[in-house]
């Protein structure tokens, strides 16, 4: 059973005051029904719109289908284990702030969760006030990166036109103008496969004497800078954003 939090339905009116600002959307993936029920109530009272998934498979479906500002993931989940679930979400371009909530308290467990893409880690048993404070801190950090587009665990900075990688956060990878535009288009819709013709129209100036070979050339340039996995070739269709 999946619990969907409240949403603001579309209204056929121009007065936006009739539709107040929406609460931040939060995905809770927790298989303990008693703990989950308590957390849904507490988080809802704290101002979040909460969706609950009881296992990793349901969490993956919701995490990919809906845009969440923040997620709370258990480690030991049925169907898909918590860190594996997080890696799959990050690999598909999900950038929500993620807090791992688990009884696994060793340093190795925390390191594995953080390396898997978690932004924070809270060990059970925990204080509800601390959980809420950490989630709000994650949301503030998310707001500070509004000028960036995710590429897996890395980020494309739209102002600096550089890629920042999590394994070397102090370094950045500069891009040429067309490398930047090509990567920006692919990253804008990470699940979409773009044909060469569509990329030519979106990336290259109209009237240029470029052929579809130009797309292949700039894909090669980006892969050389970012790694072969940064852009996927979908044979017979075109290109899709990969992971780094």
Outline the structure in words:
The chain is of the alpha/beta class. The chain has helices spanning 33-45, 56-65, 82-91, 107-115, 128-144, 177-188, 196-203, 212-226; strands spanning 25-29, 49-53, 70-73, 97-102, 120-123, 148-151, 154-157, 162-165, 168-174, 231-234, 238-241. The strands form 3 sheets. It has a 5-stranded parallel β-sheet with strand order 2-1-3-4-5, sandwiched between helices. α2 packs parallel to α3 (82-91), α6 packs across α8 and α7 (196-203) packs across α8 (212-226). The longest helix has 17 residues, at 128-144. Residues 3-19 have low confidence and may be disordered.
Name some characteristics of this structure.
five-stranded parallel sheet, alpha/beta, 244 residues, 39% helix, 21% strand, 8 helices
Short description:
The chain is an alpha/beta fold and about 240 residues long.
**How many alpha or pi helices?**
8
How much is the radius of gyration in Å? 20 Å
* Biggest sheet, spatial arrangement of strands: 2-1-3-4-5
The number of distinct β-strands equals 11
- Large-scale geometry: elongated
The end-to-end distance, rounded to whole angstroms, is 34 Å
Helical content class: 25-40%
Order of SSEs: EHEHEHEHEHEEEEHHHEE
Mean pLDDT across every amino acid position = 81
Instruction: Kindly estimate the percentage of residues that lie in beta strands according to DSSP.
Output: 15-25%
The secondary-structure class comes to alpha/beta
Biggest sheet, open or closed, and with what strands and sense? 5 strands, parallel
Low-confidence stretches: 3-19
């Amino acid at each position: 059973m999946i619990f969907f939090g409240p949403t603001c339905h579309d209204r056929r009116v121009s007065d936006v005051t009739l539709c107040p600002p929406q609460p931040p959307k939060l995905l809770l993936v927790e298989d303990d029904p008693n703990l989950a029920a308590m957390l849904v109530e507490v988080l809802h009272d704290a101002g979040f719109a909460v969706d609950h998934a009881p296992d990793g498979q349901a969490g993956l479906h919701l995490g990919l289908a809906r845009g969440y500002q923040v997620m709370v993931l258990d480690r030991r989940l049925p169907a898909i284990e918590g860190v594996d679930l997080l890696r799959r979400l990050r690999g598909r371009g999900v950038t929500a702030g993620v807090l791992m909530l688990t009884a696994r308290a060793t340093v190795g467990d925390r390191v594995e969760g953080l390396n898997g893409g978690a932004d924070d880690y809270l060990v059970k048993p925990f204080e509800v006030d601390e959980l809420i404070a950490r989630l709000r801190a994650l949301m503030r950090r998310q707001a500070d990166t509004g000028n960036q587009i995710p590429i897996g665990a890395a980020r494309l900075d739209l102002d600096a036109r550089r890629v920042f990688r999590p394994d070397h956060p102090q370094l950045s990878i500069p891009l040429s103008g067309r490398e930047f535009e090509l990567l920006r288009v692919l990253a804008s819709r990470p699940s979409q496969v773009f044909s060469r013709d569509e990329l030519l129209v979106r990336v290259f100036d109209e009237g240029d004497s470029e052929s579809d070979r130009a797309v292949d050339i700039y894909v090669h340039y980006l892969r050389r800078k970012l790694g072969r996995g940064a852009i996927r070739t979908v044979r017979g269709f075109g290109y899709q954003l990969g992971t780094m």
